[in-house]
């Protein structure tokens, strides 16, 4: 027998309440007096308990819904009614999707194993929706950690039947986030979609009685207000926000003055991605935990520009690589690191760790933020290998394909703000590294050369370093070495 789950009597002077938290879901077995749902008013939180042993058949009012006293918010099937519960459950959004994928084997879509030291991850983007056909190894969803983005692919051909963890949810390794019905087709999906559309057209499903009453008082229809509640339900707050925007726009529209009418001023609040939060934390850590100082110099880029102009076509044809500036920068930095080992070192507690290898982090701008993948053993790479390596890292960064191994390590960082037009900056250290080199925009400037003024393509260099390990003499000498090598690139090629 089906028993109604109702909102209890509300305290005096309280007109309505909000469904705060459901502690059960359709199909769950419950016992008499078990707390099923919390109802929140502006004064107290009320617990609604099970009137008898049984199974939850249907949840009518989702979390966030505004409800009245004695309003029916769910149904309980009394006794061992597990078989009866699924019949009532199709009204729930979660049950509609699997119906579109009948006739196949249910396979779990799980979060992959996370990198070491990564405790959890965030669902970034679902690329398919319930009811859509998928093919084996098709990317279904991107999982974002604070270091890399992991792709989760379909385990077989079939239909995505269910999404269990929505975008923005925090998940752990091996957690089930969706269901794929292997071998199923999407033929049944339109039926489920049409049923969902019919539900959305029904005002009683989209808004509770209190909300419909508020809409009626202001001459509004449910369709006039965008719902932000679960399943697109319209909440009391949605109506109030709609009314406040409408009232704010009215004075401007009614103003008799000939001044131009400004549109609505809107704000958009978006949660930080994990990568952005990690970047923020690390930048703050670098400022607070190091004795950071920046020294500057400038370099005449004409010799390198002349060399590129002369050999770039032949270089590209021979090595299938573009002869850019970054190859020269990396070569010059590698040579300078050999001469100044303190700059290639790092602090570990009370020890200084000198690295006898040359792994250089290259700052790459991606849609998710700035990342610093590592180009390893740069002392063993040719100019063409450096250019190809940087290109590959940049493409992987843009497409979110960088691996954890490519992101870890690095003894020194090069960042090139010049590609965005930056003339001068003070780059922030990339801990535990001790120094970072900022390259900038190449710009023609009048320079004094042998007593005469010449217009030369000049670029500012900025070296930020940790003064705890690198003294001023070493930092200036390091930067001057880079300047000398870039102004006479033949030294790089001849190893002088």
UniProtKB/TrEMBL annotation:
- Where is each Peripheral subunit-binding (PSBD) domain found? 206-243
Name the top EC class: transferase
- Provide the Lipoyl-binding domain boundaries: 2-77, 106-181
**Gene3D superfamilies referenced in this protein's UniProt entry, alphabetically:** 2.40.50.100, Chloramphenicol acetyltransferase-like domain, E3-binding domain
Stated EC number for the protein is 2.3.1.61
Q: Give the keywords, sorted.
A: Acyltransferase, Lipoyl, Transferase, Tricarboxylic acid cycle
Q: Does the keyword Disulfide bond apply?
A: no
Q: Where is this region: Disordered?
A: 226-265
User: Can you tell me which residues the record assigns to a coiled coil?
Assistant: none
Catalysed reaction(s) here are: N(6)-[(R)-dihydrolipoyl]-L-lysyl-[protein] + succinyl-CoA = N(6)-[(R)-S(8)-succinyldihydrolipoyl]-L-lysyl-[protein] + CoA
Record pathway: Amino-acid degradation; L-lysine degradation via saccharopine pathway; glutaryl-CoA from L-lysine: step 6/6
CDD domains the UniProt entry points to: lipoyl_domain
Pfam families, sorted? 2-oxoacid_dh, Biotin_lipoyl, E3_binding
Cite the record's Low complexity compositional bias ranges. 248-260
Give a GO cellular-component term: oxoglutarate dehydrogenase complex
Record field: compositional bias (Basic and acidic residues): 234-243
List, in alphabetical order, the GO biological process terms annotated in this UniProt record. Answer: L-lysine catabolic process to acetyl-CoA via saccharopine; tricarboxylic acid cycle
Can the keyword Hydrolase be found in this entry's annotation? Answer: no
The record's PANTHER family line, in alphabetical order, gives: DIHYDROLIPOYLLYSINE-RESIDUE SUCCINYLTRANSFERASE COMPONENT OF 2-OXOGLUTARATE DEHYDROGENASE COMPLEX, MITOCHONDRIAL (PTHR43416:SF5), DIHYDROLIPOYLLYSINE-RESIDUE SUCCINYLTRANSFERASE COMPONENT OF 2-OXOGLUTARATE DEHYDROGENASE COMPLEX, MITOCHONDRIAL-RELATED (PTHR43416)
> What protein family does this chain belong to?
Belongs to the 2-oxoacid dehydrogenase family.
**Known role:** E2 component of the 2-oxoglutarate dehydrogenase (OGDH) complex which catalyzes the second step in the conversion of 2-oxoglutarate to succinyl-CoA and CO(2).
Task: Name the chain's protein.
Answer: Dihydrolipoyllysine-residue succinyltransferase component of 2-oxoglutarate dehydrogenase complex
* Native source organism of the sequence: Pseudidiomarina indica
């Amino acid at each position: 027998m089906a028993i109604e789950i109702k909102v209890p009597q509300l305290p005096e002077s309280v007109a309505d309440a909000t469904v705060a938290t459901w502690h059960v879901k359709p199909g769950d077995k419950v016992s008499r007096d078990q707390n099923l749902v919390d109802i929140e008013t502006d004064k107290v939180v009320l617990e609604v308990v099970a009137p008898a042993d049984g199974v939850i058949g249907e949840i009518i009012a989702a979390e966030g819904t505004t409800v009245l006293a004695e309003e029916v918010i769910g149904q309980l099937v009394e006794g061992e009614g597990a078989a009866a519960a699924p019949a009532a459950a199709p009204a729930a959004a979660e049950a509609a999707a699997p119906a579109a994928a009948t006739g196949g084997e249910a396979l779990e879509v799980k979060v992959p194993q996370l990198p070491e030291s990564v405790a959890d991850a965030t669902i970034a983007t679902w690329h398919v929706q319930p009811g859509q056909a998928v093919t084996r190894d098709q990317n279904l969803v991107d999982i974002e950690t604070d270091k890399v983005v992991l792709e989760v692919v379909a385990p077989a051909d079939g239909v995505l039947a269910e999404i269990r963890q929505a975008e923005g949810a925090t998940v752990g390794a091996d957690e089930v986030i969706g269901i794929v019905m292997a071998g199923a087709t999407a033929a049944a999906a339109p039926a489920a979609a049409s049923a969902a559309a019919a539900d959305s057209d029904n005002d009683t499903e989209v808004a509770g009685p209190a909300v419909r009453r508020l809409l009626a008082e202001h001459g509004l229809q449910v369709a006039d207000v965008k719902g932000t509640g679960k399943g697109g339900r319209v909440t009391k707050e949605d109506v109030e926000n709609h009314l406040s925007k409408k009232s704010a726009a009215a004075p401007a529209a009614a103003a008799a003055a000939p001044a131009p009418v400004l549109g609505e001023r809107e704000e958009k609040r978006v949660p930080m991605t994990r990568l952005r939060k990690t970047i923020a934390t690390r930048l703050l850590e670098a400022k607070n935990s190091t004795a950071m100082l920046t020294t500057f110099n400038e370099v005449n880029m004409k010799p390198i520009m002349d060399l590129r102009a002369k050999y770039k076509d032949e270089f590209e044809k021979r090595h299938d690589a573009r002869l850019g500036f970054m190859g020269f920068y990396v070569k010059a930095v590698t040579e300078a690191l050999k001469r100044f080992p303190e700059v290639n070192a790092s602090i570990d507690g009370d020890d200084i760790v000198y690295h006898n290898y040359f792994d250089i982090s290259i700052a790459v701008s991606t849609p998710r933020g700035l990342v610093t993948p590592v180009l390893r053993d740069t002392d063993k790479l040719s100019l063409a290998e450096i250019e190809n390596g940087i290109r590959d890292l940049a493409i992987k960064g843009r497409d979110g394909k960088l691996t954890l191994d490519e992101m870890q390590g690095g003894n020194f960082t090069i960042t090139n703000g010049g590609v965005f037009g930056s003339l001068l900056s003070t780059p922030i250290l990339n801990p535990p590294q001790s120094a970072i080199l900022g390259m900038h925009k190449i710009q023609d400037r009048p320079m004094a050369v042998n007593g005469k003024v010449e217009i030369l393509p000049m670029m500012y260099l900025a070296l930020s370093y940790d003064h705890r390990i690198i003294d001023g003499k070493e930092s200036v000498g390091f930067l001057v070495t880079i300047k000398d090598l870039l102004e006479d690139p033949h030294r790089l090629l001849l190893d002088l």
